[in-house]
Design goal:
About 40% of the residues lie in helices and about 10% in strands. It has about 140 residues and is an alpha+beta fold. A two-stranded antiparallel ribbon has the order 1-2. The longest helix has 29 residues. The radius of gyration is 26 Å and the shape is elongated.
Length: about 140
């Protein structure tokens, strides 16, 4: 308790400092994160080969826990169903990638855009293929 000249003894308000409430919030956040990660990790392992995209290390069921899913745009909420924002990296390459990204930000670099839009190709190289084949 704190003694002051004008207010007497100050006591903390009832119910303001409740460690169990904070523990519940942290626990819920961890469970939510694990559920989200499990969904896109399983999906990425189904659609991408079990090979590190950087070092080329191959993985089997015995060491699959060392293969992680990296978000190319560093946004863990951007999980397209086609897996275009994911790449499978071993834990070492994944740590290296994030260290490089944090170094880039620390040196004044720009963060990756949240949803980068890429212009689709307009050129159709095989548009007249049937015409060429018909001439022969």
């Amino acid at each position: 308790m704190i003694k002051t000249k004008s207010f007497g003894t100050l006591r903390p308000r009832q119910g303001q400092n409740r460690p169990e409430k904070g523990d519940a919030i942290v626990s819920e956040a961890r469970q939510s994160r694990q559920a989200r990660e499990a969904g896109y990790r399983d999906h990425s392992l189904r659609i991408h080969p079990w090979v590190c995209a950087r070092c080329g290390r191959h993985f089997t069921r015995e060491n699959l826990h060392e293969l992680t899913v990296h978000h190319k745009d560093h946004n863990h909420d951007n999980n397209p169903p086609n897996g275009s924002n994911w790449e499978n990296l071993c834990v070492y390459c994944h740590d290296n990638e994030h260290a490089r990204y944090h170094d880039h930000l620390a040196s004044g670099g720009q963060a990756a855009p949240v949803h980068e839009t890429v212009a689709s190709a307009t050129h159709t190289p095989f548009a007249h293929l049937m015409d060429l084949l018909a001439k022969k």
